[in-house]
Amino acid sequence: MEKVGFSVPQKIPEEYVNKVTEAIQSTSPEKIPQQFMTFLKMYDQFKVDVAVTGDSGSGKSTLINALLGVNHDAKGAAPTGVVETTMEPKVYQYPNCPLKYDMQKLKDTFKKEAPEIKREVFPFFLASLFSGDWWKQRTIMRQALQNGKINEKDVPDLKSLCKTFDVASGTGKLKTTLEALENFQLDVAVLGESRSGVTTLLNGLIRQQNATFCSAHAKTPATSTHYPNVRFWDMSGIENILENSLEEMTEILDTFDFYLLIVSEWKRARHLDLARVIQKLQKKYHFVQTKIDCHLQAQEDLCCPETEILDGLRAQCAEELQRAKLDNSQLFLINSLDRKDFDFVSLESVLGSDLDTIRISAFAYYVDIIVKNKKQAQSSCQIL
């Protein structure tokens, strides 16, 4: 049997790889993941403060309420009136809500420009915390801790990272790292036996009808605007992957960031074998039972309600997962040909949320790997 070998294309452009590795080449390898996780989590949670200014009575509070999508007398609304009502700065959270007239244009502008503004502002914010005038640093640090922009426990890691990136001399390296994060490609493997519905599931996820995908071995992933910077890989034929040694199988699976495992027959339970390997990699996955419509058709002779059949199938799957000690996993029952049927919408919702959650850790892990590989290559060259 020929070994199944596979590696995904580079996850970020080469220019970013070089700049990021150059910026942190002096950092101890064991410190990179923790420092990056602290930095990136803080960036993910960082709130940009937008000031609404104008003369007294010019409608600042009215504009804020319009952006918030609330009436002037609603709870949490900015106070309005015929006389000056706002005597001091106050914070209002910007929600996701429909707006009217040119408010929608303003909202669209915020949505378009906010990521770029955040990438610009955040490095300057960190630089102000750990460089420049000591008294100014102390004042900004105290305010940042008070308003929740940073946590005190994260300060040592952030300080060390800012020293590594030499923010005292400029914020260019931090900006480059954040740009690399924005361009980072998550790789999702959809694994199933031959003819298990892998391609049909991919069609449903990227919302195309009868699209044809090359296998992962051809290095042609499926992409969709519904999942920005995510590459889906058709990994049908898992029976071939499982013929590799455990070490080779682990190497194949480790190239991906997330996994959708199509449930095979429980007697063979190949999806369980894959799940165990993925668990050892400390990565996330979901089980998907495809062709539920076919399963229901096969049970027509039982004259049972559809809900009862589905409940029985869920109970059976839950029992099998519990027996395999994988009961903390989620299982979705779907008909890939109809996105409105069964659990397909839930799968999309959970998948989108999970991919957003793992993006930071996957990026930190990837940077850690490329830095270590680069240092090993340099060491080899020095020996030669």
UniProtKB/TrEMBL annotation:
PANTHER family: INTERFERON-INDUCIBLE GTPASE, INTERFERON-INDUCIBLE GTPASE 5. Residues 46-354 form the IRG-type G domain. Keywords: GTP-binding, Hydrolase, Nucleotide-binding. One of its GO terms (molecular function) is hydrolase activity. This is IRG-type G domain-containing protein. Belongs to the TRAFAC class dynamin-like GTPase superfamily. IRG family. SUPFAM superfamilies: P-loop containing nucleoside triphosphate hydrolases. The keyword GTP-binding applies. The keyword Phosphoprotein does not apply. One of its GO terms (cellular component) is membrane.
